[in-house]
Amino acid sequence: MRVLGVDPGLTRCGLAVVDSGSGPGRVAMVAVGVVRTTSARTTGDRLAYLQDELDVWLDRFDPDVISLERLYVADHVPTVMTTAMVSGLVHLAAARSGLEVHEYTPTEVKASVTGTGRADKAQVTSMVTRVLGLDQAPRPADAADALAVGVCHAWRGVGAHRRAAAAASERARLAAAGAAR
Fold first, then answer.
1. Burial of 42: CB neighbours in 10 Å, binned 0-12, 13-18, 19+
2. pLDDT digits 0-9 by tens, 29-83
3. Which domain holds residue 94?
4. Active-site residue numbers?
5. Is 142 among the annotated ligand-binding positions?
6. In the prediction, which pLDDT does 174 show?
7. pTM of the model
8. Which residue pairs, CB below 8 angstroms and at least 24 apart, start in 92-96?
């Protein structure tokens, strides 16, 4: 499974692609980057640029699913609003591409990668570097966070995906059995 992990932000939006499936719990980095916009541009221009870059990543890496860090509601309302706008772009791009979006809270992401939901950015970066076998820690933190979001889904989402597929298969089997009566 190929996962596009997104750490949404209007000034810095972390994007990462990870592959899983080469063995239980194994995950590999395919690409990582940060899309930056400047506050000198209008919000609309910044969002359009982010949408274009997101589309490039979707076309280039052809993910099976998108994993998005869920919006953390903090005290700074303008930041919440612009981050929500970027999250909306991700959902729009996914819908246009026929992809599912799975959202994880920052606590869920941290817990899946480090073992604790209270890990700081340095711990997340360290564990992502270790888990993915990288020679260098991804920089800036938005890049490491996007990788962590991708790894989170690769590890947590696979089980959920398998359970959903098994449930759908069982529903189809029961429907077929009912129709045969």
1. exposed
2. 999 999 999 999 999 999 999 999 999 999 999 999 999 999 876 666 777 899 9
3. 2-179
4. 7, 69, 142
5. yes
6. 76
7. 0.86
8. 92/51, 93/51, 93/54, 93/55, 93/58, 93/66, 94/66
Rg (the chain; Cα; Å): 18
Number of domains in the chain: 1
* 42-46, 116-120, 149-153, 169-173: least confident range: 169-173
The number of residues in the chain equals 181
* 7 assigned to a ligand binding site: yes
Sign of CA dihedral 120, 122, 123, 124: positive
Query: Which pLDDT tens digit goes with each residue over 100-114?
Result: 999 999 999 999 999
The three-class DSSP label of residue 29 is strand
What are φ and ψ of residue 134, in 5° steps?
-85, 145
Q: What is the CATH number of the domain that holds 87?
A: 3.30.420.10
- Answer yes or no: is 69 a known binding residue: yes
Structure tokens at 135: 């020679």
Indicate the helix (H) or strand (E) that contains 148. Answer: helix 141-152
